[in-house]
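Changelog-linked ticket: EPZ example.
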Amino acid sequence: MGRYIVFGGKKLIGATDIHGSKNAALPILCACLVNSGLNVIHNCPKITDVFNTLEILSKAGCSVKWDKSTVIVDSAKAHFIVLDDEIIGKMRSSIIFLGAFLGRFKKAVIAKPGGCRIGRRPLDIHFEALERMGAVITDNGRCFVCSVEKLKGSEIELRLPSVGATENILLAAAFAEGRTVIKNAAREPEISALAEFMKCIGIETNFDSSGVITVNGTDSFSDGEFRIIADRIEAGTYMSACACAGGEIFLRNAEASQMSEIIDVFVKAGSKVSYCDGGIYMKSSENGISPLNIKTSVYPGFPTDMQPQIMSVLTLAEGTSIIIESVFENRFSHALELNKMGANIEIDSLKATIKGVNALKGAEVNAFDLRAGAGLIAAALSCGEMSVINGSQYVKRGYESIEKSLTDLGAMIRYEE
Ligand code: EPZ
């Protein structure tokens, strides 16, 4: 348990590196189980969820070694384990072990996954798809007990483009007999990254931007070497810090091509954003922040993982903004905390009404999930008083060192155990 001490009110000026994407790294690390071989994964972020995923892989017999930001996972000797380690309950992405275990070991016993408390987060789409592929899944109260004789390639249409369900199906489809076609699949860049990794370990995978993914199952795989894509949400987070505090920043390695919706929102709010080779340059607005109406949606829409951060920006807009959270049903925990800092936000179910104020004030606030914590830090950078943001354990799940990155940009922020 730790917290961040922030003393804001200073414009951000500087440059920082954007790390590998948490939501690309986690499924790709699970996928290292598929090839029973050597996997060299470059640009892997050093975040809690990655460390926890690697711990589960090593408990399952993989050898795991770090070399700077490259992690080498050898899954040749991997074996079945019951996935009931308390780690499983700490993160949502542990459910992706289900697809990998069912494929490789034809069985999986997995505790109920945890993760940010941003909604009920059911698993019906995961289970319906895997059962369609031949899996038998029962719930013994504590764990899901899953087994399959032989996974069958199937045509699967998702009732909604679930990121995690798409990932689970992809990993199971690698081992399935025949072809699997996923319709209405998730289209996030992290999904296409996983599809690219699967191709690099010898699985014929076709990802088209219309949301149809085709996988030809196989029983022969190859070793893999892959570079994790940049984290578009980390980049967007620092852009929100710059919009809140003012200033101009350069985000090295940020991949603008995956962030057009995010960039559009900052430009509409008054910032100047340009991208040259190697990263994104942003200069905050010099005549106030324009209010916006935003609705989060699946890719390529405005991502739900940027909703808390843009809410912080809009608390300072010159007018009233509306945010509709359409992906998760309980992702406004940061609003009450922002109101403790002098914001004027009203929540009505999935709709937040944000009346802009001239300035926020320093306060002690609590983060209840990863992106809420990041958004509160961005808000705290806007005011020339001290703020304390509790709940750093959530932030550390997704940011390699948010305090170092923001210090690179000129912020006054400290992390305290
Ligand atoms: C992934 O979560 C991300 N996590 C989340 O990022 C992200 O917010 C989310 O995708 C949406 O983009 C990782 O990649 C590790 P979903 P996931 O399945 O897979 C409902 C962050 O901050 N649903 O696309 O859990 C679900 O309840 C985290 O980095 C079902 O109803 O998201 C939600 O309302 C937070 N049944 C919606 O779909 C299912 O079987 C989207 O969930 C599965 C999902």
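Closing comment: Example verified and attached. DSSP finds 13 helices and 23 strands in the chain. The two ends are 6 Å apart (CA to CA).
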